[in-house]
Amino acid sequence: MPTSLTLKAALLGVLATVHIGPTSAAEIHKPVVELFTSQGCSSCPPADAVLAELAAKGDVIAVSLPVDYWDYLGWKDTFAQKAFTERQRTYGIARGDREVYTPQAVINGQIHTNGASRSAIAQAVAATAASPAVAVSATKSATGYDISVGALPGSSAKGAVVLALPILAHREVAIGRGENARRKVTYTNIAREIIPLGEASSAGSTLKLPAATLDGADSLIVIVQARAANANAGAILGAIQIAVK
User: Fold this and answer.
1) At what angle do helices 44-57 and 118-128 cross, to 10 degrees?
2) How far apart, in whole angstroms, are the C-alpha atoms of residue 224 and residue 242?
3) pLDDT number for residue 156
4) For 158, which of 72, 82, 181, 227 could close a Cys bridge (C-beta 3.0–4.6 Å)?
5) Can you name the residues that pair with 222 across neighbouring β-strands?
């Protein structure tokens, strides 16, 4: 059964460079674990706790993407975005299985598993660690951030998009109705929205992110994502997370 050592070993060999302000530091490119969750899903709190553990360990870039399709059960998710639901569905189309459920973890844009299973997530990280890497950096400027993306690998024939996700670090929610009525659940690394910044290219690119888009955010995640043959959401080629406060 995979352990935390498996998860760390899966990070080797995939590099990215992160720039914060005038300084820079090289680090191992971290896998991205996206958790599709809902305040209206009684099976989700264990997965929310697993995501918090992953975020605290720092071996992966962990992001919570609350979906809205359980809102009819009596409680409207306070963080849910229709765009997150559409991203989850697009992943299902790209994989060809069309599986959409909560709690669903998608690892590096490629493999899905039960978000409450630490071992399954570790296995998926290991299985996708050999994906080609694209260097990503974010440099603070007077007007926001300059996002630099390295050259795409030759295998990315369909191209790739660059996405920015403003992130809320932690929020506790007292859920009043629905399947989790009278529970308090803490959510971690909650995406506030998904902002398309533009295209990555075979020659590299630099894109602008205005400071106003990060008002109230605790951190910023930038993702470089290949297009799949039948959908926009393919393999994640590079990603960084930086503090903005």
Assistant:
1) 50
2) 15
3) 64
4) 227
5) 164, 240
Residue 170 is classified by DSSP as E
Alpha carbon 221 to its chain centroid, in Å, reads 7
Phi-psi region of 98 (alpha: psi -120 to 50; beta: other; left: phi over 0): left
22-67 tens-digit pLDDT: 223 334 578 999 999 999 999 999 999 999 999 999 999 999 999 9
Whether residue 160 contacts residue 152, with contact meaning beta carbons closer than 8 Å, is answered with yes
pTM attached to this predicted model: 0.87
CA 152 and chain centroid, separation: 20
HSE-CB at 114 with a 13 A cutoff on CA atoms is 9
Encoding tokens for residue 17?
Answer: 């460079």
Mean pLDDT, the chain, whole residue set = 87
| Exposure string for 178-212, b = 16+ CB within 10 A, e = fewer | bbbeeeebebbbbbbebbebeebeeeebebebeee
What's the CA gap between 243 and 145, in Å, rounded? 12
Return d(Cα 228, Cα 233) in angstroms, integer: 6
Secondary structure element (H or E) that encloses residue 53, with its range: helix 44-57
Query: The tokens of 153 are what?
Result: 């690998």
Q: DSSP letters along 77-128, please?
A: -SS--HHHHHHHHHHHHHHTS----SSEEEETTTEEEETT-HHHHHHHHHHH
More confident residue, 212 or 27: 212
Residue 34 half-sphere exposure toward CB, CA atoms < 13 A: 27
Q: For 235, phi and psi rounded to 5 degrees?
A: -65, 145
- What are phi and psi for residue 14, nearest 5 degrees? -120, 115
